[in-house]
Write a structure and sequence with these properties.
This protein has 15 helices and 3 strands. The chain is mainly alpha-helical. A 3-stranded mixed beta sheet has the order 1-3-2. The longest helix has 35 residues. It is globular, with a radius of gyration of 20 Å.
């Protein structure tokens, strides 16, 4: 790709990336040490979720099943009971930890269905979820409830941040299989398609973020000469153009990209392992506690991984490939 960036834009990119890498090294050194690994995760997702490189499926929300808050809570509680998870949703709603916003029918969109927020504020764990009066809402609720269940009584550390997203996506995907067994096939397929599309799209940007961060961290300078010495491809300006776009649209966030990509990557691995053996849910539940107590290696041990390199990386890639192939088959029926 030719250089269509001005000198001013190139200087800005250098400044922002340098500042981002420096802050990451000082504030979250664990993530700074993973730039190379995170770059590989993005490439693996782009390669093995290739089906989602284009919109090959229907995302119609008009035919989704209607529901209400009590019904969705009941669905979730039954799922929890089936998986030996002890959690009283209604208790935390009464105590104000969980707030639910009702969305008007005219305002229902894909974004409103997928929207939720987990936070630690004023010394209290909270989640904010939305009610579109759809069964599909319950999948997003499961995701946010997962964050709530492993939020410590203080701000998370970097290990907790890295793993909570992967656990939340894993439980959401497992729950979507549960919905499918209950007859809600439209909801399961739609939300899975949205999750995997999000993973693929984010990976296309994040691969550029981690590639240039890894270059700067390893060589000390984000120059075209260093790029050509360090990488075999000729895509220096293509990656810088993506970084430029993310800066101008205010979403160049190394920390957020790290959490998201680890979340997608490990969740696909854990989800596929659970499909092969439902007892794997026990390891997932143990991880809820461990992410606030142990280092990365210890947390990975719980899900039968070590460093996500070599053979371990092949295990993750195999899982992602299995998920991708299954969804290709399910999406052969175009209408949802």
């Amino acid at each position: 790709m030719s250089n269509n960036l001005s000198c001013e834009e190139l200087n800005k990119i250098q400044e922002v990336v340098n500042d981002g890498v420096t802050r990451t090294q000082h504030e979250v050194p664990v993530i700074a040490s993973l730039f190379g690994l995170l770059y590989n995760t993005c490439n693996d997702i782009m390669q093995y979720l290739y089906f989602y490189s284009a919109k090959n499926y229907d995302m119609n929300i008009r035919s989704l099943n209607k529901s209400n808050i009590p019904f969705n809570i009941e669905l979730i509680q039954k799922f929890y009971k089936e998986n030996n998870i002890s959690f009283d949703i209604e208790k935390y709603i009464r105590e104000g930890n969980i707030t639910i916003e009702n969305i008007k029918p005219k305002d229902i969109t894909l974004n409103s269905i997928m929207c939720g927020k987990s936070l630690y504020s004023d010394g209290k764990n909270k989640i904010e979820i939305q009610n579109n009066s759809l069964v599909a809402d319950s999948a997003t609720w499961i995701h946010e409830l997962s964050h709530f269940r492993d939020q410590p009584d203080h701000e998370r550390n970097e290990i907790s941040h890295l793993f909570t997203e992967s656990i939340a996506y894993t439980e959401e995907l497992i729950y979507l299989d549960y919905l499918e067994r209950k007859g809600y096939k439209k909801e399961a397929k739609l939300i899975k398609n949205l999750i995997f599309t999000s993973a693929y799209n984010y990976a296309t940007l994040a691969t550029s973020i981690f590639k240039v961060c890894n270059l700067l961290d390893s060589t000390g300078a984000l120059t075209e000469e260093n790029y050509r010495l360090y990488y075999a491809d000729m895509n220096y300006y293509e990656h810088l153009s993506r970084i430029d776009y993310s800066i101008k649209n205010d979403f160049f966030e190394i920390f957020r990209a790290s959490i998201s990509m680890m979340g997608y990557y490990l969740s696909l691995y854990m989800y596929e392992n659970h499909k092969e053996d439902h007892k794997f849910m026990e390891s997932i539940q143990e991880l809820h506690d461990d992410i606030n107590k142990y280092d990365m290696d210890k947390c990975l041990e719980h899900i039968d991984l070590k460093h996500i390199e070599g053979y371990d990386r092949l295990k993750v890639v195999h899982a992602i490939s299995c998920v991708n192939n299954e969804m290709i088959q399910k999406n052969k029926v175009r209408k949802i």
